[in-house]
């Protein structure tokens, strides 16, 4: 599902909201999740899962085309751990 599909689904289930309002709501939710993660905080959505940040150390990688060694800097990457309810819904189909 892409962002526009999510906005459409939320708008269908909430006919009292305009499409512009739903787009703003979805944007605020994603912005807040991003802001919390950038501050190093964890975001938990009960029944869905939790987003957190994992640190990756600097390493030496390989260019797949040429095979030459390439320095890869240390970085922080988002990590998602699905919640129990989400896992159960996926495995009961």
Automatic annotation (TrEMBL):
InterPro entries on file: Hist_DNA-bd, Histone-like_DNA-bd_CS, IHF-like_DNA-bd_dom_sf, IHF_beta
GO BP, sorted A to Z: DNA recombination; regulation of DNA-templated transcription; regulation of translation
MF annotations from Gene Ontology: DNA binding; structural constituent of chromatin
Record has Membrane as a keyword: no
Entry keywords, A to Z: DNA recombination, DNA-binding, Transcription, Transcription regulation, Translation regulation
A cellular component term, taken from the record's GO annotations: cytosol
Pfam families named in the record: Bac_DNA_binding
Family: Belongs to the bacterial histone-like protein family.
Free-text function comment from the UniProt entry: This protein is one of the two subunits of integration host factor, a specific DNA-binding protein that functions in genetic recombination as well as in transcriptional and translational control.
Subunit structure: Heterodimer of an alpha and a beta chain.
Name of the featured protein: Integration host factor subunit beta
């Amino acid at each position: 599902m892409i962002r526009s599909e999510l906005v459409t689904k939320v708008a269908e289930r909430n006919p009292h909201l305009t499409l512009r309002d739903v787009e703003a709501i979805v944007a605020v939710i994603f912005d807040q999740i991003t802001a919390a993660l950038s501050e190093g905080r964890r975001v938990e959505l009960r029944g869905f899962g939790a987003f957190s940040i994992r640190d990756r150390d600097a390493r030496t990688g390989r260019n797949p085309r040429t095979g030459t060694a390439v320095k890869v800097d240390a970085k922080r990457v988002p990590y998602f751990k699905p919640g129990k309810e989400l896992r159960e819904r996926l495995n009961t189909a």
